[in-house]
Amino acid sequence: MVEEPREAQGRPAREQRRGERPASAPAGEAPPRSGNQPGSAAVPAWRDLGGLQVRGLVTSRFRLDGGSMYGQVPKTLWSRFSKADEENRIALVVRSLLVRTPSALVLVDPGVGAGFSAEDRRRMALDPRYDSLPGVLKAGGIDPEAVTHVILTHLHFDHIAALGLPGPGAALRPALPRATVIVHCDQWARAQAPGPKEQRSYRRRDIAVLEQLERRLVVESEEVLPGISVHPTDGHTRGLLVVEVTGEHERVSYPSDVIPTLAHLRLPYTTGFDLWPERLLEEKETILARAAAEQTMLVFIHDPRTAACRVARGADGYVVREKIAL
């Protein structure tokens, strides 16, 4: 479900906010049909938190093995939430978060992109509508050159590879060359020398793209921009940043792969990619307890159906209080 664009809800169409493309693009530059709602040009609306706005934007659609996404949970249980195909793959997305402040336009986790071999594309069933990050942003009404910062929760390829576009030879060039990248210092170090379990999650060519951009390395919990804070976690991978956006009347949390889908609200539901599952359970409990107490909106990066929700504490864990279109 996609909400009506904000212009249709009363803001004059001629008023252009930071990052928005003009209502009528020059000839030959009309944005392609939005993949965020197949078969329609409709795009999500900005949600006003009070002083800043957020918006979810699907930047990738792909498939991964269902067992890898649900770890030790038996298929008889996880198949109630995700239907597997003949290769046991389940449908996933990358739902990036856009944050607009009076002085910045921030993109969180840009997605998978197109820089993969034909066999890898087939194996992941990559949707070609999302091959170009600038194209996806333009289709969503966003000027790519207006993006000032990119927050990377971590550096696994499905979260960052879209920052690279085909360049000369086999090299990739930055898709958002003017943006400053924000990432945790432990994650940056991990990507330079990954352990055996994560070797396939990091790609040297993606890190080479980041080396061409201005970088800001975070050491601890920090307000990186007014109203935007990051908090390091270690359960999924060292230095994964949980992003919080706090407005005057609402807060949004983007827990990335700590809670990648709605099904993963259940504490025992972890992924097979988690380096430290016991620590991840503790981190998940902390995030959910605060979200329930403060009615924080949780945004799911990989859920193809549910963008966000609020939770409440139930008798056997945490339950959905309200699903939210974002």
Total domain count: 1
Low-confidence stretches: 1-16, 22-35, 37-41
Largest sheet: 7 strands, mixed
**Form type:** globular
* Percent helix range: 10-25%
> How many strand segments?
16
Please write the CATH class name. Answer: Alpha Beta
Radius of gyration: 19 Å
Q: What structural class results from the helix and strand content?
A: alpha+beta
CATH homologous superfamily designation: Ribonuclease Z/Hydroxyacylglutathione hydrolase-like
CATH topology: Metallo-beta-lactamase, Chain A
For the record, the CATH architecture stands as: 4-Layer Sandwich
Beta-strand fraction estimate: 25-35%
**Biggest sheet: strands side by side, in what order?**
1-2-3-4-5-8-9
Order of helices and strands: EEHHEEHHEHEEEHHEEEEEHEEE
**Number of helices in the DSSP assignment:** 8
Mean pLDDT, all residues: 89
**Gap between N and C termini:** 9 Å
What tags apply to this protein structure?
seven-stranded mixed sheet, 326 residues, single chain, alpha+beta, disordered N terminus, Metallo-beta-lactamase, Chain A
